[in-house]
Specification:
586 residues, alpha+beta, 18% strand, globular
Length: 586
Amino acid sequence: MFKYFTLLCSGFILSFSVSANQTSEKFSPESSTGWQPKGQVTSRDWMVTAAHPIATQYAANVLNNGGNAADALVVVQLVLGLVEPQSSGIGGGGFMLYWDNQKQQLTSFDARETAPRAIKPNQFLDESGEALPFYDVVVSGMSVGTPGIVKLLWEFHQQHGKLKWPRLIEPIIELAEQGFEISPRLAKLIEGDKLRLANYPATKSYFLNPNGSPKRQGEVLKNPQYAETLKLLATYGENAFYQGDIADSIVKAVANHPVKPGTLSTQDLSQYRVIERPPICVDYLEYEVCGMGPPSSGGVTVAQIMKLTEPHLGKKFGPEDATSYQIIADATRLAFADRNLYVADSDYVAVPINGLVSTNYLNKRSALITPNKKQKQTGAGQPPWSKRLAYASDQSLKLPSTTHFNIIDSDGNVISMTSSIENVFGSRIMVKGFLLNNQLTDFSFKHHQNGKLIANHISPGKRPRSSMSPTIVLSQGKPYLAIGSPGGSYIIGYVAQALIAHLNWKMELSDTLQLPNISNRYGVFDIEQDTSALRFAPQFEKWGYKTNIRDLNSGIHVIKIEHNLTGAADPRREGTAIGRDQMGGD
């Protein structure tokens, strides 16, 4: 049994329903579970930051025993799928940036889920052509896309790993069999979602007691079925997941949903592939900020926010000035307008990626921002584009339950990865000890709007648009920062604000992550409740903006790479940083 050793402040979980029009993003993907002040960790060698201390420790053990980043990647993700099941796991997908220090090369890997080949354009519409209620689709078989995580872990390890694949998995099998203590965060999220978790026998028996009450903090949670799944993975690799009994069980669980069955097939699983893609990079001050391209909107949108704010922030405004957040917010609105209109899976629709991050275009868009004055023009722009199409804007509801981790090994290889099962506990369908995703609800429920195609429409084999924003910052051509966060479409703003705070305002990492979150994606200033940011609300309102005080539950993890390594984890979640020859602690 592995004892959980981090305490969180008390918090509350609310059950809620969401309008069927998919345009509201009122709620957090995972409700807040408290604040735990943390410092930053400095190390002379390798480092890992992850969203749960058990996952961080297991990955650190691998790095300390001669493993590299590819080895630690396998371990941290497989452990997170056990101890943080609400956020990610082998039933989901993700995006990863990787710096190969030997090749001096940065690349990215797309392990996003794909829509089943039998999917129909009207999958999420009722008989009158209106969108189905959001949670009716989420908690169903029709929301499940083809998982990509196992394929990524296997293929990446085969290419880059040092330690034997079974050796990495054996300790996690033991952990699943012996059990771990339910953390405060997981306990609160089980409590908040107990009605939906009770919809499926396997999920109900794992997370709830026989009398229907939620399992509590400190209880030992054993997962023998996950252990059996890991044994098959250890022996047969990816084939154990994408073929045979596990694949058949996934397809059967999706197809046998009693109300809304899905169309996922064994062919969808056997033909899934991970795609290596070039990252999206822009110059910012003396740095180069690199992120994930489509189907993630994170790389493009973070890049736009950084470049749109750069001419205005300069050295004039800092973290204590309301004007700074007004500039960032107006840049965010412009970037989100472009995102919602243009960005989707570029293998299926034309996306003007180069135009969206071109210097001339962003200079014109930046000119729409005036410090200390409310922005008037907030719609999408017209970036340079060789294949212009008429798209309709999409504001799909996204409440992804997500995790982020960073790894740097002794050889200087760097990983920044964000993975997800979408909603908290995903589709709530549990198979062989793991939860299946509901990522298909990241597509627009409608195919067209006012006679125009919505770029993020659903289509067979297509990957839904994401906001995941794993980021690596380069300085003089070398990795300087690995960073990312969970948080739905707020991820983009969380990452951009943290980058501005550290790169422009020169804040220490721990101070950067303790800054209150402020965001304005669609016209309203969202201000993090119970924080010092509340003092800015009167000024925002004086300028003519609407404000909304709410939970903004980021989970940023970051590693700074200099002579020494410095890591930090967001105080809003359970994450920790560990490095060799550690010289400071959380």
